[in-house]
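Researcher: Here's a chain I'd like modeled. Treat it as a single chain, no partners, no ligands.
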Amino acid sequence: MNESMTLRPVLGRPIMVDASQAALARIAELIGGGGSPERVAREVETIITAWRMEAIRAPEEVRERLAACCDHLGAGVASARRQVESSDAHDGAALRHQARSLAAMIAARDTMSSAYDVI
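Model: Modeled as a single isolated chain. Structure tokens:
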């Protein structure tokens, strides 16, 4: 197979997008942009609402997607915690930014995990 070959959408065919990757990308975008934990939690709730509708026709697929996102967010929380713990205490601005990002990541993880009760 040619390594330089690119895939192009075919007119009339839907482009397959991994919903969990799209959700995680959106969450990362918000956190990277300095989104508050409350804002991130609201966005995750919006994602979950859409997934609840999809769960009517494909509950196992949505649960797998949810589990993958929870695993990824849990790993992100652990990584962010390590980053905060290893930060230079003298750089207050960087520490505040990392702490806010950690809080937003925790909010995303907790909100996503709570979806197990509704999906």
